[in-house]
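Retro notes, structure queue

What went well: the backlog is down to a handful. What didn't: a couple of records were mislabeled last round, so from now on we paste the full input next to the output in the thread. Example, using AMP-binding protein from Pseudodonghicola flavimaris:
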Amino acid sequence: MAQTQSGAERLLSLPALLHRNATQFGTAPAYREKEFGIWQSWSWAETEKEIEALALGLINLGVNEGDFIAIIGRNRPYLYWSMVAAQAVGAIPVPLYQDAVAEEMAYVLGHCGARFVIAGDQEQVDKVIEVQDQLHQFEHLIYLDPRGMRKYEHAHLHQYSHVQDQGRAAHDELIGELKRRQAKLDYDSTCVMLYTSGTTGKPKGVVLSNRNVIESARNASGFDHLRQNEDILSYLPMAWVGDFIFSVGQAYWCGFCVNCPESADTMMTDLREIGPTYFFAPPRVFETQLTNVMIRMEDAGRLKRSMFHHYLAHAKKVGGRILDGKPVGLWDRIKYAIGNALVYGPLKDTLGLGRVRVGYTAGEAIGPEIFEFYRSLGINLKQLYGQTEATVFITVQPDGEVRADTVGVPAPDVEIRIDESGEIFYRSPGTFVEYYKNPESTASTKDAEGWVATGDAGFFEESSGHLRIIDRAKDVGKLSTGAMFAPKYVENKLKFYPDILEAVLFGNGRDHCVAFINIDLTAVGNWAERNNIAYASYQELAGHPKVLASIQSHVEAVNRSVAEDEMLSGCQVHRFVVLHKELDADDGEMTRTRKVRRRIVEEKYADIITALYDGSASVSTRTEVTYEDGRKGYISATLEIRDAAVVPVAPHQVAAE
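Corresponding output:
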């Protein structure tokens, strides 16, 4: 890194880091964005000018120190600039999930009391206008994309570029005020407020200071030897702490380039064009990529398919060991090199991961088979364990010590302890300041000494010092037999199969486990097309006898795998049902970060769970759904319930549990 410790001590805010970057590597690219099929680029020096113009425009518009500015939209340089400009004027940026419905936005906007909103396009503007009557403090709305906005009433509506133009026009008048506000920023100033996903209730506003963000970014960047010449693709929700620390915190600390895709539809193409060196994705992205690879292989010719599976089997045997620098025989290395030339290298380039030096996954546990698939190809994919309240980093995996079944060792400057119940606690420079307007939750989560309760259960391995996560503490339980119940372990194994998108396991307090399965429409639809199977809807395909038989084979394979784990062998799936609809965030069944809201699912589908346990062969159900335009409706279905073969568990195993 291009700074001394004494220099680092003066870098107490994002605007200070921005100025350092513009001064030290001003001509280097800071942001790229693909628009109309062409990559646009801004250097750090240009970025500083763009952010200064916006900051002056915000002061001109009446933004006061301490105001909250909500930011809604897809990943675009302009919206990242908005977050830094907000801090520069002493305000607090609050990014929102762009796919949230209007009522969800209304809660966050009302809770933080945002006077100003910066929105990406007409869709986001319309959502805010829809709920503005509920927002008594709301005053001004700034929009980025002018398409469709011409006939809107503009008394409190402003085009982003016009706000910048007004800031430039008032430069001489307002620059002194901007510099005065920036000079007041220090490590204790609020950097950002991010809302939790709300798996168990209303989202909470997590207040993160400059100390939280900058120290976390500095430590993590040093741990992975990140440099100024890294390239990342910023495509994950801007409201998620993972994107904020990678695309803002670390980008500004290291000075590397943030690349924004044209749209969600072009993300994979843009990923291939950029070829990031540092890549972060939740398990769902890696699962989807693997599903697409397997679908394409099924469509490939016989020779290509057999070569793929032959070399993939070899990669599974030695790829991870070669990546970790462990001893591997000469012939195995030669064969792996041939496989790399013929299969692994082209495959990595197709996935856009050919240049990845450091890759991370987090947010949910990733299935070990999926994790090992990527590492076997020579992609340095690692797991980290983190939370919004920790400014991401709690544990990380050192190079050469990467395993699918642990989340690594404590991140730099992070302390971890585990209480008698198995719950994990941590404290670190990244520990959040507070939950906004929620002192009770703050006090119940963070004690007077700064220890934070994660809500996760786990333990440290004595031999390696690595942390193993069992599950959410509230989700871990026991079967009536005394065996441990840890649903995530089994669900991740099920989701390894390309045709299973989601799985939810039940069994706490019962004598055996049952499961809900969601099929992956892309994978199963492709299979149906290849086999000339016609279907009119997701519901019809999900209930097809051949689909059910395929899912049953996967469930039974997972049961055999689970039976090998003494501690969790009681979690085998005895009965399952393939649901008639996908679990959906719009229906409240998942969070915006794709985490299942277990309690809601359990209550909503109680009739199906009852049928799974009472021995019924089928169940008729009626479910409320939310359509894309916000309307509510119902779908009815009769679902077949299937029994799955289980491996008998020896009595001594149950006793051991």
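Agreed that this is the format going forward. Reviewer comment attached to the example: The chain has three domains: 5-222+236-263, 283-472, 477-656.
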